[in-house]
Amino acid sequence: MDLNTCFETTNNLRTIASYSHFLPIIASILLGGYLLVQTKFSLISKVFFAFIMSINFWLVADVIVWTQDSYNLVHFFWSFFEYINVIFFLLGLYFFIVFVRQRDIHWGWKLGGFLLTIPAFVRMVTVTSIYEFNQPWCESINSDFLVMYKNYIEAFVIVIILFFMGRAVFTKNTKSSRNQILIVGSALILFFVTFAGTDYLSVQTGNYEIGLYGLFVTPVFLGLIVYAIVKYKAFNVGVLGAQALVATLVVLIGTQFFFIKNPTNIALNAVTFLLVLIFGYFLVRGVKRDLQVRKKLEELTNNLQHTNTRLKELDAQKTEFISLATHQIRGPLGSIKGYASMLLEGDYGEFPEKARSAVNVILRSAQSLVIVVGDYLDVSRIEQGRMKFDFSNFDMKELVSGLITELKPVVNIAKLDLTFECDETTTYMTHADMGKIKQVIGNLVDNSIKYTPRGSVHISLTKNAGKVLVSIKDTGIGIKKEVIPLLFNKFSRAPDAGKTNIMGTGLGLFVAKKIIEAHKGRVWAESEGEGKGSQFYVELGEVRDTEVKKL
User: Fold this and answer.
1) What pLDDT, in 10s, does the model give residues 337-348?
2) CATH of domain 390-550
3) Beta carbons of 244 and 287 less than 8 angstroms apart
4) What is the pLDDT of residue 12?
5) Superfamily for domain range 11-261
């Protein structure tokens, strides 16, 4: 036998070797090159290209071993299988970590990865990666150390990928990010486990054909990468471009029918072609639908963002305008109210009785406008976060008594009975902003007066379980039960409120709620229905006598 010639491999195995090697080589180079161009040579695409090229180098060496009869060629390429094996496993890990982190790794980790390749490199260059070579059967006896070392590297890489996949499930914010990592990680695990598993079985059984069939999983690995590109925009490649990659994969498999002759390979190619065709059809159809939905969502999102930005600008302008305008209005209103009151009290001499009713209307209207202006100012402060509070301890009984005295003229004009009930022998101490609480209760009482055409307004003060409760009950128009939950919203008014009170803005109760909530209290309304009056309640925390002394 010619010493430079190995045992001839059967034509069937040669064809299987060509099919199982050249298809992944061509498809992966096209995929890697496409990603490089489309991403303008981004880090992740460069790492992926280096990874698949290292695999391709191994595949080229392996197909030469299977298809060539020259001893020298087979022995040469067989000598660095384990080294290249270590290289592409570590590059695969590098690619996956960059894919997960979306940034490069520290140089120290790169140095560590390089150091892991040195033992295999030393064995290769010192020609100790192969102990012995069986020339007639073209079979090597590899270094036990190198085989074990390669197995440990493979296991290490698989474990680290599984670790990153598991962590992604619990740490990634979006479902899309998790799915990308799980799909690409699963593709790598499938490829690495199948590759390492068939390689191990080949060595253990001595049947190296097993390794050939294990390579048929490579198109599946590439298909999953393409799916991640299409479905989740991995690598930031456009959906249509990724669809072209799927079509290219189908064409590549289809072209195998023109040069394979063996019935076994024709059957294998037909099954693979059919699976890829079905997979591609459903994928492309789904992607088209996904693309339409995504474009629509992007348009709506962009429109919504633009509208939201514009609304914020308008809201800020509105708030600023209201703040400035109400400040300007407040001064003249104070003057109108003050001079009207002085006229009625006779500070400028005897006032004609015929004109008194007209001045009463002026005074009442000015009072209403002062409240409206105050509400607008408070809303402006609340929305801008500028509402300030001056907390102190005070007796709620004294506050309500003083408020009733101030409201007597308004009640007299409305011809209503205003009564106040509390325990004169006790105090109702609370810790709050006295001015703001007076404003809230004053607005609620004023509300009851405005919406009570006839009858009475009754204020009561009680305390229980560490709480001070102010209740304001009237015999007015009442409130529908379905309207009550909406009363404390901004610009919210009862449907028929305008018939009774044209000056209402729907801001008073909103402001009252915000102020009381800032005091960690409660304000609410009750009513048995239209025409049956209303009840408003304010509840604040009580400060006991012992606490007052400490303060």
Assistant:
1) 777 777 777 777
2) 3.30.565.10
3) no
4) 57
5) Rhodopsin 7-helix transmembrane proteins (1.20.1070.10)
